[in-house]
């Protein structure tokens, strides 16, 4: 009884904290940081989606951002001047999820039986192929508008109200970034809910079984191909939803946003945070999304103070630290910063002296 | 038919370079089961180091080709050291870890190498100083430069040297044994750590040579040049059969030719819809096709899984 | 008791490159019996298992289960048709608890999907508790219930074997195929294993057994088949087979005077 009560209390507190967060951040450090928070939430969604693939099912996907791109460009094509279509959000987002999921199924069907590192490279190749196509499908027919990307994308509209303009609520004016924050937080919570439920279910157990010993899993009657495909397609569809939101939020998409580095970034959020462990993944996403911005503010003045000039621009400093972090975490905390107990055992069970 | 010979020659040159890089990948994979993501960046370091040396010596009065040779030797030494350090620091501890860990570490190493390169050489494209003769010859209606001939010949010599090393020396025998079964090789008295280090070092040396060839052939070097090149070379290694040296060479040459012919003809084949800007996509498609339909590659062995 | 044929193998063939691992192997297993598959190392016993359970594809021949031809293209299909197996080198889900291992075994006979998982509707919740309950029952049955929440990797070798059997039973098999279940066990553990297998038989489970432990085979099996170099050289009750000259030669390399 006490456990249930304290669980409710914790949930209520978290709910209040989340509701109040944009105000705290916005009034405390500035609305620009609420915008950072919004992007961070998109990354949380992506990381949770990839977590299903990498963390739960144990499939290494190095091209995950392709699904983000599919969702984003679908939104862009259906709600912008590019084709003159202006479909509503409630149609485009689910469609984005569906199309991205389909891409996932199509990619996964022939490739999921490959060994881990081969699968990694194939998915990497796929991610690059998608990016190259997005970059070049501007002739002979202009579909994606090539490297220039698609701009003037319709913002997200809830019940006719665009989130891109400040809204009067109970006498207070909420800026656009706050509005998007609430939308993203709600959707992120939905994704968290879905993944938590999946973890502790027949399907979730099947994923872990496949990860542990695929042959034994097959002997237990698990159709490993289909179950893996399910993980892949589900993860892809979450990416597609996040992509659509991204397009509506930024009102602009270009192939640049969907590079290999982005795929690796999301992968690292999952791996460094704590593979398969939902709180860890969220932590990883928030850290890796917010840290670069913090660096951007601090890197230049700190370097000026220390060296008298800027050696590394914030972008490359971020990448350098990122690369070092990858190596360091794999060497010393291979299960991630906040791993699930089970995973920790998997990883620490095998280390050379 | 008009551009066929030309593209074939281009493909041969490109393929020789791919083959050298692919050999590095395949050797490391054969012994450790690790895809050394950072291998392409070692190629890049080789290219840039050689380039710097050439720049420094450009006004020294030495003959052009000799400067390039000195640059090459310095690059080889630097890359060998780099390969050694990377293996020791980043990969050694992870030899028995689940596959994911060394792969992520390799990505980390790749990123770090690129950033350090950017620190030293900046973001710009660097052009190779004009030290090499630009004379061209004609073969069957197509052009080939002396540099390109040198690349093909040098690559062939290096590969022959490697085969000699692997098949006719004690070190080579130890390498082959370790690739087969590290535990047993160790029991037979092979110092597995040394052999693994040697594999990385040799692979890095090949990478350095390839790096110099790339910048000599295309005239430029850039901190990000290793990525795509590495990926394609890996494709070549897989195409030929990962773990097989002959396969890496064959795969490299084939991929180079496929890519060159594809880039040359794709405009005609697709009626102008897809141009040569899709060139990189070829390698990826080949990769996916090979892995899906013939994962053991052209010369690889099919391994049965024992329950 | 009506002892009709449960499994029939007809002319099973399998080669690896030039090596003929199985050649024209035919046998039949009666419902409710314990059938042993024995032979010297490398005779093809585990290969036969792997072909039967879909890990390898046969190069010839067919299997009939309950009189109907079996469709064997993937291991999970074989499990669905009612043949569960354990492995020579125990394949458990090491980082899952004993209970979770057996619950995975229930996957085949249950059906909750993604929607059910997310919504946790009545039907799904009921199914989940049924899965857990059945898993507890099976753990009791094989005698390791006190270790329900212990990680599989931390169980003793003997307990791991039992867990593997419990997991296989969770798939509700018609035929339970055990690949050297007594391997690596001492006399006490082997005796306990024997008791368990006999209990299984008395509860109506048909068992196909690969074993090297001659005493276990003689005492336990109703019938045995002997493989040597991929061919069946003898079949029948253990006592007869043991006296068969070909069998003696296969094991000992020559007739005993």
Strand residues, percent of chain A? 5-15%
Shape of chain C: globular
- For the secondary structure, the number of strands of chain A is 8
Write out the strand line-up for the largest beta sheet of chain A, numbering strands in chain order. Answer: 1-2
By secondary-structure content and strand pairing, the structural class of chain C works out as alpha/beta
Q: Supply the number of helical segments of chain C.
A: 10
Q: How many individual helices of chain A?
A: 13
- The coarse overall form of chain A would be globular
What would CATH call the class of chain A?
Mainly Alpha
**CATH domain fold name of chain A:** ABC transporter involved in vitamin B12 uptake, BtuC
* Largest sheet data of chain C: 6 strands, mixed
Notes on the structure:
The complex is a heterotrimer of chains A (353), B (307) and C (257). With 353 residues, chain A is mainly alpha-helical. Chain A has one domain (2-352): ABC transporter involved in vitamin B12 uptake, BtuC (Orthogonal Bundle), CATH 1.10.3470. Chain A is built from 13 helices and 8 strands. In chain A, a hairpin with a 4-residue loop joins strand 1 (79-80) and strand 2 (85-86). In chain A, helix 1 crosses helix 2 (31-56). Chain A is globular, with a radius of gyration of 21 Å. By secondary structure, chain B is mostly helical. Chain B has a single domain, classed as ABC transporter involved in vitamin B12 uptake, BtuC, CATH 1.10.3470. Chain B has helices at 4-32, 39-57, 64-91, 100-121, 146-168, 170-180, 182-187, 192-218, 225-240, 245-269, 279-293, and strands spanning 126-127, 136-139, 142-145, 220-221. A two-stranded antiparallel ribbon of chain B has the order 1-4. In chain B, strands 2-3 form a two-stranded antiparallel ribbon. The longest helix of chain B is centred in the first third of the chain and has 29 residues, at 4-32. Chain B is globular, with a radius of gyration of 19 Å. In chain C, 39% of the residues lie in helices and 24% in strands. Chain C has helices spanning 45-52, 75-81, 98-105, 114-119, 122-142, 157-169, 187-202, 214-220, 238-243, 245-252, and strands at 5-16, 19-30, 34-38, 60-65, 68-69, 83-85, 175-179, 206-210, 223-228, 231-236. In chain C, helix 3 crosses helix 5 (122-142), helix 3 (98-105) runs parallel beside helix 6 and helix 5 packs across helix 6 (157-169). Chain C is globular, with a radius of gyration of 19 Å. The termini of chain C are far apart. The interface between A and B is large, with 46 and 53 residues.
